[in-house]
Every structure is written in structure tokens, then in C-alpha cells.
Amino acid sequence: MGKLNLRFISSDLVHYGLLLSLLLLSHYSFQPASSASRVKFLPGFEGPLPFVLETGYVGVGESEDVQTFYYFIQSDNNPKEDPLLLWLSGGPGCSSLSGFFLEIGFTYARTELAAQSSDTVLASQGHQFLRKWLIDHPNFLSNEVYIGGDSYSGIPLPAIVQEIAQGNEKGFQPRINLQGYILGNPFTTRREPNYAIPFAHGMALISDELYESLQKNCKGNYINVDPENILCYRDMESFNKLVSGIFEYNILEPWCEKDENQPPLRRSLIEKFPRKNFLKTDLKLLVVTCPTYTDFLSDYWTNDDNVRTALHIHKGSIGTWIKCHRDRRFKYDISSSVEYHANLSRKGYRSLIYSGDHDMVFPFLGTQEWMRSLNYSIVDDWRPWNSNGQVAGYTRTYSNQMTFATVKGAGHIAPTHKPKECFDMFSRWISKKAL
After folding, report:
1. Which of 106, 134, 359, 409 could make an S-S bridge to 69, C-beta 3.0–4.6 Å?
2. Residue numbers in the chain where pLDDT is lower than 50
3. Helix boundaries (H) for 137-262
4. What is the CATH number of domain 7-189+334-430?
5. Model-wide pTM > 0.85
């Protein structure tokens, strides 16, 4: 993958939601509460790992009843000066293997109460996690820090950044050298599904006539349509039928049977790739055949005892690993993160907001609208940005140091579709260069 000009931490605060009630930060210092181990070999990879990998747990929440699992990759460029990135993927309730490999997460709660979480709890404990981690890694205290994430992270992540900024202002120690944040295809206002309709029309998935009828009958509100609004309800049925064969997370990819809803699919894969031979199998054709099969592969890998031993997972801490743990107890108590973006803009923090332009779940149209609502002037107007001599997307920058970029041909998790292009985009931005 080449040399990375950063260090990468990923914890699973956002993914599992196994967090306690809101921690009130009443002290000006934090005490370390973590365990860390070096990982030199991983099942499925021949020979020693070609980079420094550390995994561990940081206790957060009241009585540290939430044990947050993280993995840390040290920069192979200049560890003393390269930025530190804490990456939190979305969900809520989804683990992080697309942030690192295809998202690996082993965070767990010690008590039933600790398993109850919310957006604001994630913000508070994300802040606590990072300060505690830095206490245990004091050689990184002077490095610039960025917080990054995608998808549902668009709700709690700006709140985490604000918690860290306010902690610095209150004199909490250690001080975090916070510089900014990064969000990909972010859920922000909870109105993003409304933009699936104009997105589908622009991509020629629905006709002009249906689009005009939807606008007229639904009046721009396509979420939780009132069944008594017969005309809107009928139009939405037509819309859903037309896009039923489209993979909404990336409309360019084939629609595939979802493993959790199609038991025969799982059985056929298990028969083809028995567990005892799994780590010795060439799986490239399986992944290419259907992108969602990667969920199946990650289940196999993370539930292998040898893998868990290599990663130093606390034995007995969790049962069967699944990519997305949907917890109905999770409280969605931040209705929109726009206010947090506005506050962080006033404080002068940099931000990069990017969107895969073929994502119909959180379309770029909605992202553009809330960014415009901040009412900052444009300092670098709409233009293409290139990767490998080709147009990789389009970008513009506002006077609040907020950069927006599209990733051409990418879907909901843009780096999984366009890794080279996204790496170029990120590398330039983190180095304070123009895209």
C-alpha cells in the first residue's frame, strides 16, 4: 500500500454501542486504564506483518465497564511527526473492518447497564478513550490529531471532536493536539433518505414523469409517508419497485443476496469453503462475484480462535462476532450534527467531507445542502481533482477550512471502491495540500 504519512488508531466506540451512561468529566486529568500488545503474525498472512501493529483495550465509562478494543498501526514514514488519526466507522452497531481490513471490532461491556448507549454517550467516551490512550502513549502527545469516520459516524463524530476541543479549553490533561476531522458519506441531518429520490432521477433510475409526480404529491417528504396520502404512497411504491434491483450502497455494483436474509447462501458458502480450509483458500473470485460476500469472509476470519489469539482478544469477552450489532436500546439523542459542524468551524478546525458519488443511501446532494446551510463563502470553487492523471472527483473549499470532495464511481464506503484515489485525496489533505 506504500508508506502512510500517519498513524492509525481505530476503536469500536461507534460500532458496537456497548457504552455506559454519559460520563461527567469533572476532573482535569485522566488516569490510564488500558492493556496493549504487539501483533507480529496474523492467520492468513504469510510471514511477519510488514508494519507495526498493536492491539489492546482501554477502559471507559463509569467503573470502566466498557472495554474498548482498538488496533494501532504506527506510521512507517516518520512516527515522531506524522499525524495521529482516530478512525470510527458507522452503524450504529457496526464493527470496524472497512476502516482497517474489512472492519474488525471486539469491544465489549462488562455489565448490562454498560451495554446501553446513545449518540452523546459515544461522544463523551470517545473523548475519554483518546485521552487515556495518549496517557499510555506519551511519545505521541505532540503529534497533530485528527478524528475520522464514515456513514453514521456523521452524527456522533462531530460531537466527539467538540468534546475534545472543550476538554482542551477546560484544561483537561493530557492536552490533545486536535487539528480537525474527516467524514465520508456522512449521516448528518437524518433527512438524507429524502435525497434518494432526486439522486435516482439524476442517475436515470426513474422517469421524469414519476419524479415530477413524487415532487407534487409528496412535497419533498419521502420518509415515513402517511398511508392516507394515497397519491404519494402510490408513487413511492412505484419508486421502490423500480429500484428494488439496485444495490443502493453503490448503484454501479450488482445486487446480491444478503447473507443474513438468505440462509441458503450461507450454507452454500460454508459447503464450498469449509472452516478448516478457510485460511488456506484463494478467495479472490468469491469476493469479486458479489461484494456482500465480504461480510461472510469477515465472519469466518474474526470467529477463528487462532485469529482471536493472535489479536490478543480477551477470551470469553464476546460470543460470535458479527459485523453489525443492532441494539434496540441505543438512543438516537442527536437529531442533527450541523450545529456541531458550525461550532467547530467557529473554532477554526479543518475538515474534509467526501462523498462517493454513486451512494443512494446518503447521497452527496444532502451533504452539499447542509454544507451550504453553514453560509461560508467559497475560497476554491468547484473543480476536478486528479489521481493517476485522471479525474477522480470534484471538490470545493469554503472559508471555514471545510473541503468537500466527491469520489467518482465510488459508493457508500468510498475507500473500498476507490482505494488509490481516496488515499491520494486523504494524503494531500492531511499534508495541508490542495486536492
Report:
1. 106
2. 1-33, 93, 102-104, 108, 110, 259-266, 276-288
3. 156-169, 196-202, 208-218, 230-242
4. 3.40.50.1820
5. no
